[in-house]
Write a structure and sequence with these properties.
Organism: Actinomadura decatromicini
CATH architecture: 2-Layer Sandwich
Strand content: 25-35%
CATH topology: Thymidylate Synthase, Chain A
Number of domains: 1
Order of helices and strands: EEHEHEEEHHHHEEEEHEEH
Protein name: Thymidylate synthase
CATH class: Alpha Beta
Helix content: 25-40%
Structural class: alpha/beta
InterPro entries: Thymidate_synth/dCMP_Mease_sf
Oligomer: single chain
Strand order of the largest sheet: 3-6-11-9-8-7
Amino acid sequence: MTAVKTAGSRDVPAAEEKDVRRFETCGHAWIGVLRHVWAAGEAGLEDGGPIIEGPPLLFEIASLSWEDPILHEHGDRARLVRRAQERTRRPVRGRYWPRLHDLQGNDQIRWVVDLLRARPWTTSAWISLTIPGEPAEGLPCLTALSFRIRGYRLIMTAMFRSQDVHRGYLTYIPLRDVQVQVAEALGLPAGPLRVYVDVPHVHVADAERVASVLAAVPEPNAA
């Protein structure tokens, strides 16, 4: 079977690559997702204005860090430095903390840990970040997290109903912290972070910036 290789990714059989794209670092994943939207996107519209909307995408990231060289070179450096300093100085709860730890009085992360301790083979360690009937404008972009133990590692999947992927990395790295938190509570190493985005998009207002980033980073297998 023919293998397909993307920048920063491992060789993966072509049939499998159609299902899950794999990237070594958050920076490589960011560029890959931007290129996916840029190459296959169509004109669209959301509450924030006109967008370039790409097809749904499922991918994995092996390594995530605030010190990622691609992000520091081409991302929002000020935000990256600020986020990294915040986590060095004090624990940061993040925007999704209430929905993970106190959703209608339920600590969902603790529930996941208890379930996986009791039934490590389970596929039921799945939590929702949405509340039935809540106003549409309050609906989070991150709608669910799934946890499972496979190969003696904790795999976490984050499901996004929609995401502005121009700065998606600012969400992926904090999600890694959630995965590591659960993994450490279980005494396991963290495996890759898997991400599914139903509507990956870029705002038209950011199109020029995205184009400059993609022009600065060579395409996979480019001469």
